[in-house]
Design brief:
259 residues, mainly alpha, 2 strands, two-stranded antiparallel ribbon, 9 helices
Length: 259
């Protein structure tokens, strides 16, 4: 985990340096990122699978989520101009690895997970990861739009064209919305007991986030939403997702100390 964090840090520093210079992609950044992701796989695996069962606590799940985000962005960078997202997602990975290593939650590992529950977890991780990437792209798009409005063209030259960033953001949103829909559907099918602490709040807020992204998709096709308004709706939906899952786990596991 420590070596993975150092590789993430080095990749972030190199990419930030290239952004400021207006340079393109660099193979060393991606090689460091690939090494970091590989080591992160080992760290996340050991945090998720314990001798007592499967740990679905907040810290292992955060690490798994950031691993998925980093892997998706790294793979996407081989064919898409998303290298600048490294400076957003790699520091997130460093933070989650540190939390996983340093802090111990009160979650009691599950002895067994059915295939249905496992598929629900996997779909949720992919959905949250994709929509986190969309949120990072929305921040980058907002930054570029702000630079354009204030005629700071020197900094804008270090970013991909705004139209390209917007197109990439909606590509990720469509994919994230599909996986989020499958995740919600699988939850209703495979989860038997909705009386568990925090599950009702999680479900309601996640459904609210799903509605926000549905409205965003409708606005894109019917109203031609783009730019600032699309970024705001993306970030709003993302905040609801974070509150729905990690907000509930934070209150239950960290503040109240319940598993």
């Amino acid at each position: 985990g420590i070596v993975a964090s150092l590789c993430y840090l080095a990749a972030t520093g190199l990419q930030l340096q290239r952004m400021l210079k207006g340079s393109g992609a660099d193979r060393w950044v991606k090689l460091l990122a690939a090494l970091a992701v590989t080591l992160h796989v080992v760290t996340a695996y050991k945090g998720f699978i314990k001798t007592g069962g499967y740990d679905l606590g907040i810290y292992p799940m955060l690490s798994l989520m950031s691993l998925s985000i980093g892997a998706i962005v790294l793979i996407s960078s081989l064919r898409r101009p998303v290298d600048n997202l490294f400076v957003f997602v790699f520091p997130l990975a460093i933070i989650t690895i540190t939390l996983q290593i340093v802090l111990k939650g009160d979650y009691t590992p599950l002895q067994d997970i059915t295939r249905g529950i496992f598929s629900h977890i996997a779909l949720s991780i992919i959905a949250y990861s994709l929509l986190t990437i969309a949120a990072a792209q929305a921040l980058l798009l907002s930054f570029g739009d702000n630079m354009l409005r204030h005629h700071r063209l020197v900094m804008l030259r270090n970013l991909p064209p705004l139209e390209t960033m917007e197109h990439l953001m909606f590509e990720v949103i469509w994919a994230g919305l599909v996986f989020l829909t499958l995740s919600i559907g699988s939850g209703f099918v495979f989860l038997d007991d909705f009386s568990e602490p925090g599950l009702v709040h999680h479900t309601v807020i996640t459904l609210a986030a799903w509605i926000v992204f549905i409205v965003l998709a409708w606005g894109r096709y019917q109203m031609g939403w783009r730019g600032a308004i699309a970024s705001r709706w993306t970030l709003f939906g993302f905040v609801l997702l974070v509150l729905g899952y990690f907000g509930s786990k934070l209150v239950l596991e960290v503040i109240l100390g319940k598993s």
